[in-house]
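Teaching assistant here, posting this on the class forum so everyone can see the example we discussed in section. The complex has two components, and the goal was to see what a joint structure prediction looks like when all of them are supplied at once.
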Amino acid sequence: MGIQNLLWQVTKKAFTGGIIGVTISDRCCSVVPVRGDSMSPTFNPQRNSYLDDYVLVEKFCLQDYKFARGDVVVFSSPTHFGDRYIKRIVGLPGEWISSSRDVIRVPEGHCWVEGDNKASSLDSRTFGPIPLGLIRGRVTSVVWPPQRVSKIS
Amino acid sequence: MRWLRYLNQWRGTAKEAFEQVSIVAKFLCLIHVTDRYIISSTHVQGPSMLPTLNLTGDVILAEHLSHRFGKIGLGDIVLVRSPTDPTRMVTKRVLGLEGHRLSFSADPLVGDSSISVVVPKGHVWIQGDNLYASTDSRNFGPVPYSLIEGKALLRVWPPRFFGSLR
């Protein structure tokens, strides 16, 4: 009987902790790893996956979707549902972006994202402007490894 | 020394207050998780889904599980975050999945010039049931699948229209 009771207590605590964790991660902030080098040198300046940066993503920006040029955001991929990318916003709705061949206007409700490492970045130059509704959070600072802890400009 | 006695008196009350607040906090977190990940009720209004949904507003139950597993199919009524205004949610029907070819009439009031599109990878084509009064994929193009946030299950208000949606 003691074991059963213990198990039940542990399950209850785990369930409560999980629910609180999910709520905080959805509404407040969460920590995510950065994979790949499309945002070098801002994130992952070396191509060594043991030293991947972990960043703090804040979710308060999702209340009214007001972003500024230069924000680094996490968004769901428009082509591969389930994937998430981290890139920088370089164009807000209504602005004109000059890509390789022509000048494109960013439609209402969309934004143009690009990686800092233009050579190896899959971004709006490939899949076009993305709806703001795909954005899942804004990166505010690097939290790991400790020597790279910093706020993102 | 008197304030020490006061502190002791209030310690019991503070502990009880903390317990009550944490119960409320846990309950609110539970509501958030249910509303976001399992099932929620939404008030929908507007003419774009007539005759399926009423003009003056219905309350529908929407579930948030199917889209996470990629199980949105043709003909489903889905809640989608609007690609033109990310603070708004729109309710439309999925009429095309990725790779499908669709043709639609550019202006349903005038003639039958029809445009043919292929839905790109990772996108869906959404359309309101009321072709004459709906801004949907015919206006803003196919929308990424990740913008879908829920699938309508059944209508709960007004009571005489209670039931699943077709």
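For the discussion questions: Chain A touches chain B through 26 residues (CB under 8 Å). The helical segments of chain A are 2-27, 124-127. Think about how each of these relates to the inputs above.
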